[in-house]
Amino acid sequence: MPIQGDDLKQGWGVVCLKPWHLAGIFQSSIDAENLAAKLGAGYVVKFGEHASGSTDFSFDNLPRG
Length: 65
What we know:
This protein is an alpha+beta fold. 17% of the residues lie in helices and 37% in strands. The chain has one helix at residues 29-39; strands at residues 10-16, 21-26, 43-50, 57-59. It is globular.
């Protein structure tokens, strides 16, 4: 099944960390938050880089200050 926003190289990713699942990538954090809420517990929103055509998504897990 294709990932929503697969063509984006950078954006707001909706991910489940364990087990790993990249559900979608969005230009808008609001759209990403909406999908995460729909998918339920375990899904979080992270801003990061995506390799088009794959489920690879890298993000900085450090708190911003």
